[in-house]
Amino acid sequence: MDTRQDLLSFVAERTLAMVGMSRAPHSFSASAARELRARGYRVLPVNPHATAIDGEKCYPSLAALPEKVGGALLVTPPAATEQAVRDAVAAGIDHLWIQQGAESSGALAFCRERNLRAVSRQCILMFAEPVRGFHRLHRWCNKLLGRWPR
User: Fold this and answer.
1) In this model, does residue 149 exceed pLDDT 90?
2) Which among 77, 91, 123, 144 could bridge 62 via Cys, Cβ 3.0 to 4.6 Å?
């Protein structure tokens, strides 16, 4: 869990579910989805309170997705993340990215106990190529300071 290989294999997946995607157009999740799409990813939004977000059909749960995804990107509040991880496993998704700020001790323990391929405490936009703008600078700083995943 949280190895460089986990990071690289997740961003190599081109179809991702984004769990907890917000309807707010200026939210991190909506901005991240737009950025990922601009980088060639197919992002399927998951939010039980929306039927469409940013012009894309939205699904109420991971179980409702119309196709298999390569991974689930969790942008949920920490209190909801453990259930989101459990839902992903129930839907047959074992490749998870728990976006920086969405972590909970219960979710991380669940991932460790089941030996899931999971990334946490990282921002996906620092790893999904091509990395641009602030995320490119942040990535460079992390490498310089020895904070780059091994």
Assistant:
1) no
2) 91
